[in-house]
Amino acid sequence: FPYISRVLMPDNVGKVNFGSSFVSYFSLIASLGITTYAIRECSAKRKNKEKLSRTASQIFSINVITTIIAYVSMAIILLLFRNLDSYRTLIIIQSTAILFATLGCDWLNSAMEDFAFITVRTIALQIISLVLMFAFVRKPSDYITYAAITVLSSSGANIINIFYRKKYCTVRFVRQMNLKRHFKPILLLFVMLLVQTIFNSADVTMLGLMKGDYEVGLYSIAVKITNLVCQLVNSILWVVLPQLTKLFIDEDFERINVTLRKIFQGFISLGFPCAVGSICLANEIVVVVGGQEYKNAATSLIILMVGFVFNLLGGSFLGNMILLPSNREAVFMNICTIATLINVILNFILIPKFGAVAASITTAFSYLVMLILCIITVDKRIQLKGIKNSITSSIVGCFVIIVLCGVIKGLFYREITIIMLGILSSVVFYLLTQVIMKNEFVCEIINSINNRKKS
User: Fold this and answer.
1) Could you give the 3-state DSSP secondary structure of residue 252?
2) For residue 45, what is the DSSP state?
3) What is the mean pLDDT of residues 300-314?
4) How far apart are CA 215 and CA 182, in angstroms?
5) pTM
6) How far apart are CA 152 and CA 132, in angstroms?
7) What's the rounded Cα separation, in Å, for the pair 158 and 206?
8) Burial, 6: exposed, middle or buried (Cβ in 10 Å; 0-12, 13-18, 19+)?
9) Residue 98: which of 28, 34, 196 has the closest Cα?
């Protein structure tokens, strides 16, 4: 992205992100909440190949129908709204990701917990896409080519999946989709994901319509950096979700509480220092990643990182790790709807005057609302004991990061030097702080590494 942001410049980065935001609505219609539902259902039947094939084929068939509906809807909108003409080619290219996602059934790999394949495949495609990007994206007008390469990096995996998934079961289109069983939970998840997508995309769409591509470009770089941190921490979520689903089915709350305690400790121990470090080095990160043209995005990044902490505890942990696996998607849907309505209303009021900064503030505030509502609705049988030490040690470690970053920024002037020294020193001293204060999550990881070395 540091290369792309300098080549394409804010306006064209804004165009690509506007197109992506537009396509995301139709992608949601196609996916219909199927991914989360499919992981939950298929993980419960993974030991019975016949049942797995039947369930996977039924879900895939529903997905094919919804994908056709999504493409028809998108074609109608592109024909009716002529102000989208300048984005049409871009949107059509980006929308091919919808088709590949449906055909690929990547949810099957997650349900089978085949994370080694997912990792190797993803890294290989990212490397190929990186080479293509440097080779073919050389000037601002190449933003269409960049969009096509981005689709390859995200959708190439789904092409591979068409052949790879045969090792688990047979997935084919069937007429008997068992809609009576599947449709209600899928629909509930769809509504929940719809409001989440509106929540995540409305600010970009409204910025583009109210303030133009430049403001979208500024906001997009702050969002991209925030999402990078989110994906790092939320990777825990997708690994543990199938296991949690099985525990909630058995109502084994003793093991559920043990598992959730470890997840919470992981979120706190990783998420807090990432957020604090990003806030301390926001100006330097934005300039290094995007260039001087994006320096005004630093304020948005700081605000979004505060929102990231709220979302980490609320949507990611309480919502995705507790409400969804326990089949309380209707509750989570209502929470997401309330937060989204607040976000959209505040965007209408604040974006015309404050632009990208307003979009950041409304997002962070909506995440706070989501956190409060999730806390109120959590099952009383969920009890996280023994987490005080992890919270305390992480907070103390974050104060160490603030001091280190402040000292380094006072001694050095080059942004890249400040970032490198800031990250290196923060990682070392944060880990030392956690070991000294006996952070359970960090100590378990260190002991695990030591045991592997010995064996």
Assistant:
1) coil
2) T
3) 92
4) 41
5) 0.71
6) 10
7) 31
8) middle
9) 28
Contact status, residue 339 vs residue 364, Cβ threshold 8 Å: no
> Angle of helix 298-311 relative to helix 282-290, nearest 10 degrees?
110
Range list of H helices, 105-212: 107-111, 115-136, 143-164, 179-210
For residue 302, give the 3-state DSSP assignment: helix
Over the chain, what is the mean pLDDT? 85
**Percentage with pLDDT > 90 across the chain:** 27
The answer to whether 314 and 371 have CB atoms below 8 angstroms apart is yes
Q: How far apart (Å, rounded) are the C-alpha atoms in residues 379 and 358?
A: 34
| Helix ranges (DSSP H) in 211-297 | 213-250, 253-280, 282-290
Q: What CA–CA distance (Å, rounded) separates 230 from 308? A: 7
Check: CB of residue 145 under 8 Å from CB of residue 8: no
Q: Does the pLDDT value for residue 265 go beyond 70?
A: yes
CA distances 330 to 157, 185, 340, Å, are 31, 9, 15
The SS3 assignment for 396 reads helix
160: closest CA among 116, 113, 105? Answer: 105
What lies within 8 Å, CB to CB, of 312 at 6+ separation is 230, 233, 267, 271, 275
Q: 42 falls in which pLDDT band (50, 70, 90)? A: confident
Amino acid of residue 110: S
> Which two structure tokens, joined as six digits, stand for 26?
């139709």
Which residues lie closer than 8 Å to 242 by C-beta, 6 or more apart? 39, 40, 43, 110, 111, 113
